[in-house]
Amino acid sequence: MAQVRDIGIDLGTSHVLIYMKGKGIVLQEPAVVAVDRDTDKILAVGQDALRLMGRTPGNIQAIRPLRQGSVSDFRLLQTMLHDFTAHVIGHHWFARPKAVLSVPSGVNDTEKRSIISVMFDAGMRRTQLLERPIAAALGVGIRFDEAYGSMIVDMGAGATDIAILSRNEVVVGSCVPVGGDYFDDAIIRYLRKKHNLLVGERTAENVKITIGSAMPQAQGITMDVTGRNLISGLPKTQAVTGMEIYEALQEPVADLIEAIQGVIERTPPQLAADIFEEGIVLTGGAAALTGLSESIYDVLRIPCGVADNPELSVAIGCGRALENTAAMRELLSDNRHKWIR
């Protein structure tokens, strides 16, 4: 009989990552499902569905089952999770693996129970949930089992989890709808307003990755961006500078910093002192924005750094919980953590 290994799942707004015990990360797929609206038939999942975004007839939609950190379409989420887990573990009905699943903080208790049920249907014998900031902290190797404050800011596509950790708990936390999608939307609005250029989400994301920055850019950095001219209705290619994208991102970056500051202001003084000494760690795919940690430092005057491979931090954290289940048992317990809103 083939050996079936337990898995850890990072269920994100834009991507799903699966860590297999003893193997590491074995799947990294876009959290997208393509649906024919006329027949309600699901056409593709993951990378195959992503290829259809912006390139399909009007009756075919590429949909993310999670938006801004909460479930927007549970039926599609069920299909997506079933497809990804079946791809990784196959169909082993007599040796069902265990799963550790990290979900965005915006997912409510009812949705969590439903997701656990979906995981059982997908072949899991048991699914335990791990809070996203705790998973991120485990993934980057932050120790938070003692009475000392650590701060993690996990930036996904739809939302950002901000948390102060101490003694294996989230002492103060917040989940705000500021993430990679929010940055992309700001770029779309800016190009439409300044250049009468309408671009899609994938183009805006490519602009952000290529020339986007949270700090002023050196002169001369440009990128040709193709979209639709809102006046003529025809395709148009526009040269866009790095400084323009910096201007577009100023407001969403300021919103993020304000949210971080709000959590620090609600932190007990002694733990806040620890944060000012040790700094802030940024994780998640959106944390890779150039100059973001420097921008946070300039405003808050708190040391700030980005984790290595920040987009993998949560998945690795789920994997570490799997690899050492006995020591992590209390982190995986239901209703363990109390959030101060």
C-alpha Rg, in Å? 21 Å
CATH topology of the largest domain: Nucleotidyltransferase, domain 5
Structural category is alpha+beta
| H/E series | EEEEEHEEEHEHEHEEEHEHEEHHEHEHH
The CATH class assignment of the largest domain is: Alpha Beta
Molecular shape: flat
- Low-confidence parts, pLDDT < 50 over ≥5 residues? 334-341
Main sheet: strands, sense, barrel: 5 strands, mixed
**In percent, how much strand structure appears in the residues?**
25-35%
Can you tell me the CATH superfamily of the largest domain?
Answer: ATPase, nucleotide binding domain
Total number of beta strands: 18
Description:
The protein is an alpha+beta fold and 341 residues long. The protein folds into three domains: 7-129, ATPase, nucleotide binding domain (Nucleotidyltransferase, domain 5); 134-178 and 253-308, 2-Layer Sandwich (Nucleotidyltransferase, domain 5), CATH 3.30.420; 180-248, Alpha-Beta Complex (Actin, Chain A, domain 4), CATH 3.90.640. The protein is 37% helix and 26% strand. It has eleven helices and 18 strands. It has helices at 47-50, 74-89, 109-121, 132-140, 180-195, 201-211, 242-265, 269-278, 292-300, 313-323, 325-328, and strands at 7-11, 15-20, 24-30, 33-36, 41-45, 60-63, 66-67, 70-71, 98-102, 126-129, 150-155, 160-166, 169-176, 197-198, 222-229, 235-241, 280-283, 304-306.
